[in-house]
């Protein structure tokens, strides 16, 4: 995680839509040292806005005020709410602003079309581990975004995790893989905890065992640079316990289920582009 407290913060950032992902970003940025006065939020529900103000000491403003005053606008509403938000924003957003959208499926060109000519737009797919400084965020520039705009957007997402640039044509696949990815991992934890209970372990013990196992395995993957097959083979003793489990995973089509699941998520992201 980059420490932001020692840096120059020319940019003010507005997070428009302080829901689950908006909060993960706000919390991650503040933990990384961004001064609260450099951040404003907008939120449709006053109770949620109050909650954010109390929890993070950030100012809640209207969408219009955010558009007029913040250098960078991070659009963090649901894809289905994007149209209404852009209707509110469009009279006030000038090409001096940088617009960052994190909505699944919504393309930079769809946003550019709703704003005055020349506004730079960058599409980013982050994920909720931003809360703990371990997000994976993938950035793709729209047609007006320059290297300088990309660097500004990266300066928002790097403090909360890893960043990568890819062509926008790959963003629906990224959404399926790393955007939704934490949910698959939590689903796995839930299922393996149930399995531990089936085998007679107390729930809390099963939970702790699997969380540490996933954490340790992720660190090994990241730090060893080894191929996952090699790491799995090192656990799989001839005639042992692991291969007995893997035979069942293959027999139940877990690999095929993951391929189908991610394809469905990619397709849903494409569908959301049409606001459905
Ligand atoms: N939740 C996740 O893990 C991720 C979500 N995203 C994207 O982030 C966006 C937000 O997702 P979530 O945070 O999960 O949804 P959410 O429903 O928790 O948050 C959206 C927030 O926007 C507010 N809102 C809606 N219209 C508004 C408006 N006109 N002005 C101000 N606030 C408004 C809602 O009241 C809500 O609090 C979506 O587009 C999603 O595709 C991207 C990556 C990961
Ligand atoms: O489920 C969703 O649509 C959002 C986008 C990626 C993660 N959550």
Summarize the helices and strands and which ones pair or pack.
Elements lengths: L12 E4 L3 H12 L7 E4 L3 H11 L2 E2 L2 H7 L2 E4 L6 H8 L8 E4 L6 H7 L6 E5 L9 E7 L5 H11 L3 E5 L5 H9 L1 H18 L4 H22 L3 H8 L5 H11 L2 H19 L4
Parallel strand pairs: 1-2, 1-4, 2-3, 4-5, 5-6, 7-8
Antiparallel strand pairs: 6-7
Helix pairs in contact: 7-12, 8-9
Bound molecules: 1,4-dihydronicotinamide adenine dinucleotide and (2S)-3,4-dihydro-2H-pyrrole-2-carboxylic acid.
SSE order, one letter for each helix or strand: EHEHEHEHEHEEHEHHHHHH
Helix content: 40-55%
**Rg measurement, Å:** 21 Å
The CATH architecture designation of the largest domain is 3-Layer(aba) Sandwich
The largest sheet is:
8 strands, mixed
Measured between the Cα atoms of the first and last residue, the distance is 36 Å
Question: DSSP helix count?
Answer: 12
Query: For the record, what is the CATH homologous superfamily label of the largest domain?
Result: NAD(P)-binding Rossmann-like Domain
Strand order of the largest sheet: 3-2-1-4-5-6-7-8
Q: What name does CATH use for the topology of the largest domain?
A: Rossmann fold
**Ligands, deduplicated:** 1,4-dihydronicotinamide adenine dinucleotide, (2S)-3,4-dihydro-2H-pyrrole-2-carboxylic acid
Pfam families: F420_oxidored, P5CR_dimer
Organism: Acidothermus cellulolyticus (strain ATCC 43068 / DSM 8971 / 11B)
Catalytic activity: L-proline + NADP(+) = (S)-1-pyrroline-5-carboxylate + NADPH + 2 H(+); L-proline + NAD(+) = (S)-1-pyrroline-5-carboxylate + NADH + 2 H(+)
Keywords: Amino-acid biosynthesis, Cytoplasm, NADP, Oxidoreductase, Proline biosynthesis
């Amino acid at each position: 995680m980059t420490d932001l407290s020692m840096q120059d913060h020319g940019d003010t950032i507005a997070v428009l839509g302080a829901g689950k992902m908006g909060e993960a970003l706000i919390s991650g940025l503040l933990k990384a040292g961004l001064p609260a006065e450099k951040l404003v939020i907008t939120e449709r529900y006053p109770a949620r806005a109050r909650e954010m103000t109390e929890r993070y000491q950030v100012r809640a403003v209207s969408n219009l005020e955010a558009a007029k005053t913040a250098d960078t606008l991070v659009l963090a509403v649901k894809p289905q709410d994007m149209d209404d938000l852009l209707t509110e924003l469009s009279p006030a957003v000038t090409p001096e602003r940088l617009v960052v959208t994190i909505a699944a499926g919504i393309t930079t060109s769809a946003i550019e079309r709703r704003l005055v000519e020349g506004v730079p737009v960058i599409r980013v797919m982050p994920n909720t581990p931003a809360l703990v400084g371990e997000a994976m965020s993938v950035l793709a520039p729209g047609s007006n975004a320059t290297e300088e705009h990309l660097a500004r957007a990266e300066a928002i997402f790097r403090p909360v995790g890893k960043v990568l640039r890819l062509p926008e044509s790959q963003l629906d696949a990224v959404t399926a893989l790393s955007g939704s990815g934490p949910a698959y991992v939590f689903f796995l934890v839930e299922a393996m905890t149930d399995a531990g209970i089936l085998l007679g372990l107390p729930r809390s013990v099963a939970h702790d065992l699997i969380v540490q196992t996933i954490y340790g395995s992720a660190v090994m993957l990241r730090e060893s640079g080894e191929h996952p097959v090699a790491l799995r083979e090192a656990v799989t003793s001839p005639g042992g316990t692991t291969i007995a489990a893997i035979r069942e995973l293959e027999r139940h089509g877990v690999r095929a289920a993951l391929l189908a699941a991610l394809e469905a998520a990619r397709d849903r992201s494409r569908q959301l582009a049409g606001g459905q």
